[in-house]
Design brief:
With 325 residues, the protein is α/β, with parallel strands linked by helices. It is built from seven helices and 17 strands. A hairpin with a 2-residue loop joins strand 8 and strand 9. It comes from Alicyclobacillus macrosporangiidus.
Amino acid sequence: MAKNVLVLADVRRGKLRNVTYEMVSAAHRIADGGAVSVALLGKDVAALAAGLGDFGADRVYVVDAPELEHYTPDAYKKAFMECVRAANPDILLLAHSAVGKDLAAVMATRLGAGQVSDVIDIEGSGDHLTFTRPIYAGKAFTKVQVTEGVVVATVRPNNLPPAEGGLGKAGQVETLAVTFGPQDLATVVKEIVQKTSSGVDLSEAKIIVSGGRGVKSAEGFKPLYELAEVLGAAVGASRGACDAGYCDYALQIGQTGKVVTPDLYIACGISGAIQHLAGMSNSKVIVAINKDPEAPIFQVADYGIVGDLFEVVPMMTELLKKELA
């Protein structure tokens, strides 16, 4: 039976994140002939609606308002509920991000829906959907089916089949007028102060070069950044490197940091503590560089290099420069 699917677009710094296209592509596949809609919320976001039809969206509902410039639960809940009323979905897909996780719980409660978090795969279509999610820090996986009612699911970036577009659909765009009262603005974000960041978004990066205590200092991350620049990669770190003050906690990957699933993960000077493995062990290809041949990281690595990272990484950088030139 056909299902209507509503996707909440994941917008960051005025751009749609890749996970949005992954969810729209998945929605087109699982709808089984039902309608695929996208909710686009924020300030000055209307222009982002163009092109979503090419990935499978039949309709895009836009709520463009100054009150939505920054995420606040009450305002976003009201705006998203207007999209839900318009789309009448059987399935809601949100990114497994800070915003998506918070809003998914609110919507599941409001709709009396079944919720599935941190989905890495969706099998089947229509009435026969199976969601796969990791448990026990990625050591096992559960298959979840919601047998009745609406489904609210959060999707981990970089896991669903790549969204390639090319469907040639125009996709209708409908602007919804939402009025926000004092009860919707109990919390107002006046300003966000954040550290300047550049390069690839860590949670969506296809390639990650990551450093651990073996980098020895903040200066020790320099070769990693040089390699990352050549590969067009993001730079990450273990908690040990962050705790030692070698880098900012924004780079932390692991059980208490970001969970990533890149195509290629290069671990430099990382021993492979279980807490770190929980954040990256599902990477498609893992390359480990460590002086200790007994380091646990080699047990999960597809390729291992026993050696000094300060010798190996610059060699890799130079070789890749020549190969990619």
